[in-house]
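I had to read the description of the data format several times before I understood it. Each protein is reduced to its one-letter sequence and a matching series of backbone shape codes. The format is easy to grasp once an entry is in front of the reader. For illustration, here is how one protein appears when written out as sequence plus structure tokens:
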Amino acid sequence: MFQSYTIKDIAKALGLSTSTVSRALNGSYEIGSETKKLVLEYAEKVNYRPNPIALSLKEQKSHSIGVVVCEVANSYFSQAINGIESIAYNSGYHVIITQTHESAAREAANVQHLLSRHVDGLLVSLSAETTDITPYQYLHEKGFPIVFFDRIAPEINTHKVIANNYQGAFEATELLIQSGYTRIAHLTSSDNLLISRDRLNGFTAALAKHHIAFIPDYVKHCNRGGMVLEEVEAAIRELFSQPNRPEAIFIAGDKLTTTFIAGIKKLGMKIPDDIAVVGFTNSNVAELFDPPLTVVRQPAFQIGQTATELLIKTIESKRPIYEYKTEQLATELILRNSAPQLRPH
């Protein structure tokens, strides 16, 4: 959890006035050493942190925004950050970027750090591990501007910017089916993420449309989102050890797609001879793979721009905002050679 104890909470617990607690925390000479010691020890015990929202209001705007992503090296997020910066800097805002590396604990620490630096708002793409979104709900209810992008928290009523993940997954899977493949696997990230669920739904809908049975053993979750090669290699081995092993795979993530290619190569397999591939990736080198990769590409730069525009409008609004929107941008299916027409058996 982020900061939750307030000066009022400490004052109530210790039977002191809020002004006494405030002065004790600030080291005022007006407060006796015993009272200071009592307050500081209790504050440390409950992990008290100054309210960043109150501090920001007190000190006016910092003209900076915080960004929370899983990994800057991820092609999608590097392009989204370019979009974020293109709007932010032209609007007079600095950008502070943090990486979660798919860790919920690191995400919480990053957000706390950004708040301590008095950012005016947050652009957040959740880590694969994150399940507790109540801290964001707390900040949002206090009027702190937050916009989610890509990996969103659907329960929080604030602005969100996403790709049409369901449609992108549906089109990718249907392409494999139309190319003659029927034994199609699906490699995806943590089920905690709405994008994982949306892409799985698109995958299963395409199978259903073409009357192909859904096989649960063909679906593999990599909870670290492709950041750990061994996790992806384990999924590949599980898929290929099945008696009726899959002949094609739809991969639902940028990092997962590129890590899968590395895993297949390391295990001595070839694309598309051993398995045809369609993946979600914004990597600019996808066409340089051997063979060039058929991909679903997301409008990452535009998603970053749109999210930043919405955040700055929220920050600069003179009145409280009660109506929020979810912007959904279309994906693009780019055909290359990693999923060719299946030759007759």
